[in-house]
């Protein structure tokens, strides 16, 4: 496995953050958040904005909107049939005691419930990520939507991930809707449309940028496979938007957090139609 990013180099880590914050990737994440919002019954804003874009802001203000019927959620729930019932698992080369222990691990981590959520997420977005990490003495299952995760490409195989970056999205620019009634010369701009061109110039100035505090506060959790070209083991670390490592910046410290440091493994499973 290899990547053109040297994760031990702060300049390359800053370049990784720039890729995550790029307009194209931000649009991808914004679309994922919009899908999730609609699925979670927060539909009113999107119907309102659709009407305003197609007709006018005044029409949207006057028109009664029924947003209590969520066809997207109904369809996804109907199609996501896997794990609705407890699956019958079969094991090989295990003793009865070992089988019982594994079943307890599945039960303790609410695996069936989490995998049902994963299947729903897959039906919603045609792809999904499941993260499995040890925490508090047990295995924790986490379902990640597309706006939660970014892939670090493997230069030898673009379809394979060299690593992943887990980060939160700046939802306040999308969800704190103070500019929903914005009406420009070029037409109505909804809050998802505004994300890229309002509230921020999306440029990090050296001085005097009112958003500089965010670069130090935002967190990015990085998981990476071993980098054979550079002789690095598997890495796991936390950095801020400036590329500064917050969890110990030596090679030993960045490798120590990885549960699979001597193996070509990641705790994140990618699920897709292909």
Characterization of this structure:
- With 274 residues, the chain is an alpha+beta fold.
- The protein has one domain (10-272).
- Helices cover 37% and strands 19% of the residues.
- It contains eleven helices and nine strands.
- The chain has helices spanning 10-20, 23-39, 44-54, 57-62, 71-79, 96-108, 111-125, 172-175, 191-194, 212-217, 251-256, and strands at residues 127-135, 138-144, 149-154, 157-167, 183-184, 187-188, 220-224, 235-239, 268-272.
- 22% of the residues are buried.
- Mean pLDDT is 81; it is low at 176-186 and 195-210.
According to DSSP, the number of beta strands is 9
Radius of gyration: 22 Å
Question: Which class of secondary structure composition applies to the elements?
Answer: alpha+beta
Number of alpha- plus pi-helical segments: 11
Tell me the overall shape.
flat
Q: Give the distance, in angstroms, between the N- and C-terminal Cα atoms.
A: 21 Å
């Amino acid at each position: 496995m290899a990547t053109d990013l040297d994760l031990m180099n702060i300049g390359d880590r800053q370049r990784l953050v720039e890729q995550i914050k790029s307009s194209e990737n931000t649009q991808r994440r914004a679309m994922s958040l919009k899908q999730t919002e609609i699925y979670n019954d927060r539909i009113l804003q999107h119907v309102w904005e659709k009407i305003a874009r197609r007709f006018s802001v005044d029409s949207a203000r006057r028109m009664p909107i029924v947003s209590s019927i969520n066809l997207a959620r109904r369809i996804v729930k109907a199609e996501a049939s896997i794990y609705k019932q407890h699956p019958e698992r079969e094991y090989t080369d295990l003793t009865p005691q070992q089988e019982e222990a594994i079943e307890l691990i599945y039960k303790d981590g609410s695996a069936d419930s989490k995998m049902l959520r994963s299947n729903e997420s897959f039906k919603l977005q045609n792809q999904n990520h499941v993260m499995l990490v040890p925490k508090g003495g047990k295995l924790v299952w986490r379902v990640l939507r597309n706006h939660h995760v970014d892939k670090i490409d493997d230069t030898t195989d673009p379809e394979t991930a060299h690593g992943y970056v887990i980060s939160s999205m700046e939802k306040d620019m999308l969800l704190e809707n103070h500019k929903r009634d914005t009406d420009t010369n070029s037409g109505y701009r909804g809050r998802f449309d505004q994300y890229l061109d309002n509230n921020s110039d999306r440029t990090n100035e050296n001085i005097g940028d009112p958003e500089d505090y965010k670069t130090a506060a935002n967190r990015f959790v990085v998981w990476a496979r071993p980098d054979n070209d550079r002789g690095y083991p598997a890495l796991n670390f936390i950095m801020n938007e400036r590329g500064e490592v917050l969890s110990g910046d030596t090679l030993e410290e960045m490798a120590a957090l990885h549960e699979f440091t001597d193996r070509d493994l990641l705790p994140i499973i990618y699920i897709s139609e292909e």
